[in-house]
Amino acid sequence: MTPIEDAGIGSVVVVGTGLIGTSIALALRQRDVRVFLADRDAGAVRLARELGAGEDWTGEQRADLAVVAVPPQFVAQQLLDLQKRDSARFYTDVASVKALPLAQAAQLGCDLTTYVAGHPLAGRERSGPAAARADLFLGRPWAYCPTDEASPRAVAAVERLISLCGGNAVRVDAAEHDRAVAVVSHAPHVTAAAVAARLAEASETALGLSGQGVRDVTRIAASDPALWTGILEGNALPVAEVLEALVDDLSAAARSLRALAGDGAAMGQVTDLLSRGVRGTGRIPGKHGGPARTYAVVQVLIGDRPGELARLVQAAGETGVNIEDIRLEHATGLELGAAELYVRPEAAEALTHGLRERGWQVPG
Amino acid sequence: MTPIEDAGIGSVVVVGTGLIGTSIALALRQRDVRVFLADRDAGAVRLARELGAGEDWTGEQRADLAVVAVPPQFVAQQLLDLQKRDSARFYTDVASVKALPLAQAAQLGCDLTTYVAGHPLAGRERSGPAAARADLFLGRPWAYCPTDEASPRAVAAVERLISLCGGNAVRVDAAEHDRAVAVVSHAPHVTAAAVAARLAEASETALGLSGQGVRDVTRIAASDPALWTGILEGNALPVAEVLEALVDDLSAAARSLRALAGDGAAMGQVTDLLSRGVRGTGRIPGKHGGPARTYAVVQVLIGDRPGELARLVQAAGETGVNIEDIRLEHATGLELGAAELYVRPEAAEALTHGLRERGWQVPG
């Protein structure tokens, strides 16, 4: 067989039909991959199936790839069970930590030649199959951590899975992955929870003054505590180190503010923290918020009147381009606004030309 | 004059044409209020004027209301200058802290009968007139803090300003306001900066694994450090107290994780923090993210095909309802999606009926 064929994925068994497992299944179904679904919760499998995620797994059918989509602490044992039954040619998982499952898998004597650990960075504050989306991984990073034992075929199969789901494959060492997600995911999650915990004890007046800022800071804190306790357990030391650095900065800021309230001490340390924060946000790839980064944005000037948007989207439809998302920005007090049409990058030029032909103002 | 007339605002002078000042001016212009613009930065005034925010203030014209939109530490002096020149019948400000400007105003001998301190909770991570939006305050809280000295006419004028801008007026004592915003705005801002500061020193690999979560947590940390230093200086003690509570929670979490890495101690304390976070997010009024809460959402099932959205928005346009925003949710792998149409609440029923008449599936 050629490597190309090796990387071919005709069938996948998804073990664990939660948010991530079901979203992977939905994405694979859109690419006409045969998907078998399994979960210790029969209700979760039924719901995933009704959402079009695939068919029930009898345990008999052998798949090209098995995706272990269970909490980190259960990955290795699940992998061992699947390998014992020879359920698939290759295996991966989607746990948010990587070093622990790999170590446990080696300890349990799993076959590490057919297993490549993975982690799509695409959670939501909602969980379960009902929150699943086929486009959850579009343009989002998807880390994978091949060991030295992993066969090239197994690596190719996981890379194929990532590409079928529209993710951005990021090959990284397991230990480096865990240090990285401690900084960009796990410690921010604990911090968001700590900010949100202040709201749990805040006055109604305080909550009534909540703006968009605190909503954004605390959004992820609505996630399932049991799931996240498992994730943090699996990455304890790297997360602890980031939290300790956070505590140092916040303690220093609190001290400066107390000193100020007392004798008017300098705020230089606080300003420095805020400035480092600005630098940090500037280093995050891609735009803040908005749809997945694989979309291109075509901005069109429109009058802020009933029917105007309809005429625009009608015109866009005539160009045959599918609009993935729309944002309206009433940028000024004038009777003029800008509509941002999000489309696949390859469609942006056709849409721009098509709209200009139809007399629409498309700047740039 | 009747109280109604007293509350009438035919002209407003906005001193400080930054994000908030210019947004207020744009909102007032949409309501045909005459707006005079002033800023120590002539370029900021010019840009605001070109955006349609109003006309230059010569300093001669007397307005019904003067809005002092300068950083907190300059509010009192600016108010005194305006009152000395009898620039307006009534005065307010938009600073993010309230006790300090009020104390300084009293200290400087400002006329507290014509001044009512205010604070619209509607910032953006962008600043300056170019980022201004007439709809910035739609459905957002707008705190105002009348003192005992404030005349009913002055209070009515500020309430009128808030309603003209579409804000939700929240009457609150200045000290309580400052404690509240420390919890829902100022401490979250410092915390977001501390999380973002970790990114400033993180590896490219780590940044490459950034997902939506860390983007949301750190979005506000991109704001101007000088502006925020001034805000935090003006609310030092309440912010310090919240930061200290945050530090206690994060230190405890770090200790639990270190202990776990050592001897596998219980994670109960961490789970408890996460659970308190979930409770906290649940107490924030309104939905997370999305457009201002004054909008009603009409959800419509649509096929995920080119032209389908065009037909829907066309149909919506035929109902004569103006669509404020649109969100698309490709909830499943099926060829079916849901479009969320955001409209003024009073228009939701007409839109629902109109769409159903035209054969669209509008659930609920």
UniProtKB/TrEMBL annotation, chains A, B:
Pathway participation: Amino-acid biosynthesis
TM region positions: 6-28
Gene3D superfamilies per the UniProt record, alphabetical: 6-phosphogluconate dehydrogenase C-terminal like domain, NAD(P)-binding Rossmann-like Domain
Pfam families associated with the record: PDH_C, PDH_N
EC code(s) of this entry: 1.3.1.12
Domain of life: Bacteria
Keywords per UniProt: Amino-acid biosynthesis, Aromatic amino acid biosynthesis, Membrane, Oxidoreductase, Transmembrane, Transmembrane helix
GO molecular function, one term: NAD+ binding
PROSITE patterns in UniProt: PDH_ADH (PS51176)
Family annotation (InterPro entries): 6-PGluconate_DH-like_C_sf (IPR008927), ACT-like_dom_sf (IPR045865), NAD(P)-bd_dom_sf (IPR036291), PDH_C (IPR046825), PDH_N (IPR046826), Preph/Arog_dehydrog (IPR050812), Prephen_DH (IPR003099)
Keyword Oxidoreductase in annotation: yes
GO aspect biological process, one term: tyrosine biosynthetic process
Stretches assigned to the Prephenate/arogenate dehydrogenase domain: 10-291
SUPFAM superfamilies xref list: 6-phosphogluconate dehydrogenase C-terminal domain-like (SSF48179), ACT-like (SSF55021), NAD(P)-binding Rossmann-fold domains (SSF51735)
Family listed: Belongs to the prephenate/arogenate dehydrogenase family.
Name used for this protein in its record: Prephenate dehydrogenase
Lineage of origin: Bacteria, Bacillati, Actinomycetota, Actinomycetes, Streptosporangiales
